[in-house]
UniProtKB/TrEMBL annotation:
This is ABC transporter ATP-binding protein. Keywords: ATP-binding, Nucleotide-binding, Transport. Belongs to the ABC transporter superfamily. Pfam families: ABC_tran (PF00005).
Amino acid sequence: MISRIECTNLKRYYKGDGTKTIALKNVNLRFQKGEFTAIIGPSGSGKSTLLSLIGTLDSPSEGVITYDAEEILKKSKGKLADFRFQEIGFIFQQFHLLPTLTALENVLTPLFSRKVPYNKLERAKEVLKQVGLQDKMNSLPSQLSGGQQQRVAIARAIIHKPSWLLADEPTGNLDTETGERIYELLKELNEQEECGVLFVTHDPALAAKANRIITMKDGVVLSDKVGISI
Ligand code: ADP
Ligand code: ADP
């Protein structure tokens, strides 16, 4: 279980036809597992890029990310996939649920073709209960509200007991009240499961409730502050 992530001189640029977009200019950050960190900043400031890099979905153009002092990105694709499976859960603004599968089946998808030392079906039911959807296990995404669909996505993200939850604008498609409830759920998971949460949001009111607030602008960290910490 990874307890410390360290980003050193992280840069990420994209080259096009004679153009170069700099998504991250130079980022230096450390994260500890128990933390609940909000990442805010205007659109295009590099928040999603940072999360993709930390989640090993993307590689930096320059710089290093270490996980408990190890450079995981140097591993083979298969090893990287295993690392993500063991350590990381992703949640997105678009819930990315498979429309023809029930809530229960959607939650089970990360375990497909994986060997795990527990009963998959029991575990899927357990996480759906944890997110408050025990009565909706057999519903299709189209039969669920936005908040409920995001809860299914959260259950899917935690089914394999990751040590880090990376959430990219998880409340971006939800109304304020539903967004707050999703925030509270992530906070609960952070406290009960002791997983680190990186929570990208546009909403300053939600960000203010985190333990730590990182503000990004134009590919750099503008500020890194202790939050109100509810
Ligand atoms: P944020 O999440 O803060 O909105 P992003 O990390 O998505 O910011 O994007 C940062 C910058 O990098 C933006 O200018 C964006 O257009 C650019 N960018 C992101 N992904 C790509 C890509 N795959 N190809 C080209 N440019 C990209
Ligand atoms: P939650 O509070 O579970 O996160 P919401 O606040 O989005 O979810 O929705 C509150 C309730 O309204 C839901 O539990 C559901 O019964 C109902 N609801 C809202 N939108 C829909 C929808 N598109 N389809 C079915 N039920 C809905």
